[in-house]
Amino acid sequence: MLSSTCKTAIKAVIYLSSKNSCEEKVSMKEIAEKIDASEHTVGKTLQSLVKHKIINSVKGPTGGFYINEEQQKQPIYVIVETIEGSEVFKQCGLGLSQCSEAHPCPIHNDYKVARELIEKIFKEKRIKDLCDPVANGLAFLIG
To answer: Alpha-carbon distance 91 to 108, whole Å?
Structure first.
């Protein structure tokens, strides 16, 4: 359902959130290493998140990316919406362009329920909610 770029964005933001003790600035290289993603993808993704004010960046030798407390209160949905658009929660499970209630694919009804549940989770879970288990060693960002 989500692209690898969107998953990378979510993991990057969660990692930044775990470094928020004093709005610590983190390099793109460090983020890429800690979430096991390419620097190129991470760089492009982070710039998009900065542009949409989901995270912040500072240029220069002591610069990097960071997220403040207020931004940590944002739902994960804003990351998905920025990277994928909200249409990702309306797409057909089999990728058909004409899937609808009147013209359903074979998994339409089941996938619709799952898609709506995922959208609900992403709207309810805040960035901070996903950061805490990672910071406490109860969840992980790399396999």
So the answer is: 10
Largest CA distance in the chain: 57
Q: Are 108 and 99 contacting, i.e. CB atoms less than 8 angstroms apart?
A: yes
Distance in angstroms between the alpha carbons of the first and the last residue of the chain: 19
pTM of the model: 0.91
Q: Of 81, 114, 108, 109, give the one whose Cα is nearest residue 95.
A: 108
Q: How far is CA 96 from CA 4, 51, 84, 103, 113, in A?
A: 20, 32, 17, 10, 17
CA distance 113 to 86: 16
Reduced DSSP (H G I as helix, E B as strand, rest coil) percent helix, strand, coil of the chain, to 5? 55, 5, 40
> pLDDT tens, 89-120?
999 999 999 999 999 999 999 999 999 999 99
- The pair phi, psi for residue 123, each rounded to 5°, is -80, -30
The whole-number pLDDT of residue 22 equals 58
The lowest-confidence range among 2-6, 16-20, 47-51, 117-121 is 16-20
